[in-house]
Amino acid sequence: SVTLGCHLLRTKKFVFLATSSDLSDSLQKSRIRKEIMRLSLLRLARLNPAVKELRLHLCQSGEESQGVRDFVNKQYVQLKRDNPSLPILVRECSGVQPRLWVRYEMGKEKSVPLTKATAEDIAKHIETLGKGP
User: Fold this and answer.
1) CA 100 – CA 122 distance, rounded (Å)
2) Distance between CA atoms of 44 and 78, rounded to whole angstroms?
3) What residue stretches are annotated with the Ribosomal protein/NADH dehydrogenase domain (predicted)?
């Protein structure tokens, strides 16, 4: 019998068990990363009911807004599908610094700058701010 070495791939919230042959294949690594992102999106699906609106401000062409554009292209549809009654506004303006705004009950708002943030960073910000005021 052949024994394959096993490795644990850890992130902050997920653990995956993979064999040595799996790890040598870059396609498998890519699939694992995509699964981690998919599972991360499931966390986004459970935004606190106190969240009344999400707004993303970004520049259509600025380099500092690239992560926001990536987030909108890759994750907006799933986020909206999981929160159909939540208004998610994407505001584009030339030269604007990217920023995430979250409006809660009673008009309270919080914002986070997104300059040079990756799509994963933005998902983490939404998860954090989505827990409530």
Assistant:
1) 8
2) 9
3) 60-133
Per-residue pLDDT at 7 = 46
Instruction: Classify residue 34: in a domain, yes or no.
Output: no
Question: What is the length of the chain?
Answer: 133
DSSP state of 95: T
Q: What is the pLDDT of residue 5?
A: 43
Distance CA 86, CA 72 (A): 15
Specify whether the backbone of 107 is left (phi greater than 0), alpha (psi in -120 to 50) or beta.
left
- pLDDT score, position 117: 93
7 forms bridges with which residues in the sheet?
Answer: 18
Measure the CA–CA gap between 95 and 114, rounded to whole angstroms: 14
Which residue is associated with the tokens 């499931």? Answer: 42
Q: Find the CATH number of the domain harbouring 91.
A: 3.40.30.10
Q: Is residue 12, in this structure, part of any structural domain at all?
A: no
Mean pLDDT split into 10-residue runs, the chain, 133 residues: 44 51 61 62 67 93 93 90 89 94 93 93 89 79
**Number of domains within the chain:** 1
- Domain holding 89, by residue range, is 51-100+107-131
